[in-house]
Amino acid sequence: MRVKVVCVGGGPAGLCLAILLKRQDPSHDVTVHERSPEGSTYGWGVTYWRGLLDRLQAYDPESAHLIETHSVRWSDGVAHVGDLTTRHHGDEGFGIGRHRLLGLLAGRARALGVRVEFESELTKPPAGADLVVAADGVHSTLRTGRAGHFGTRITAGRNHYIWLGTTKVFDAFTFAFTETAHGWIWAYGYGYSGDHSTCVVECSAQTFTGLGLDRADEGECLALLDKLFAGVLDGHPLIARPGASWQNFRTVTNRTWHHGNLVLLGDAAHTTHYSIGAGTTLALEDAMCLAGALREHAGLHEALAAYERRRQAELLSVQSAARYSAQWYESLPRYIHLPPHRMFALLGQRHSPLLPYVPPQLYYGLDKAAGQLEPLRRFKRWLGPRAARALHARRR
Asked: Which residue numbers in the chain have pLDDT < 50?
């Protein structure tokens, strides 16, 4: 059955859904409205892992191939703590420029017959559409107008962060922790092309004001950060896009994700802290799930309800991991004075619901022992999810 679909927001979620719906039925009338000009986007590079490519391959092999071909890869993680450095080998990760990713998806959508309209802002659901998709991001206008129905909850984190780029190309996912007279400040760096990397800088509110970053203009801010992270930048400058500013991360949740023929997708429906590197992956997984639900269910209400149930269930563990990851960084003084290899090991365990309640040195020892003894590994796998559910229930 031919349906008319309007996607509001030309980010990864909206474009991917448009592609998948056109692949399922070329007769569908699908339009993507993006308020920004073509080729303009916030952010630098985004990260993802092999599992995303495998899932996308099943829905649209060509999109999966395009994204992988234009991505860079790494498999090591490096932590610089003051003058000390430790490196660990891990799973293969991928980085791609957000600008490149959106260009690939927009091109693929157009090739399939999707209308992609830039500089086109919709602030309310258009008449005449069978399905309206709110893929317009964390500040979604369509969601905000119905926040009471959706049960929207927005929680701001304690730390401050800024999203920057650099011409320094990191060969590994890099963490750099620098101590100042006003506390610690740190950066996450990862390559996404042959000549640029993303560099996210974060610090506590006390360090932010103590360093004067709340009063510094862009030039002063970049000069100070260049100096603080000179050891890992190797003389390369940090770069800010127009309008870049320090922010507190906003965690968005919604009790329900659909209302009539309007459905939330990607960051409009949920956000997870950037420190777990899952935002783009979750947006594309939302699109795959919604496209699948619309294919499997004849009725729109049944399809949207099935999409909501499945994705909310799948997100529970990811949201828990993101919450504890953010908390780990907000509690950095608890871990930063450990020997670097131990600190880095607990950095890798920051998603654990148990870690905040166990002394770090003791947790490190228990985790190391669990890695060597199968009964302890099984106990840890059994206990972790149950502790997470119990703690989640106490917060509700």
From this structure: none
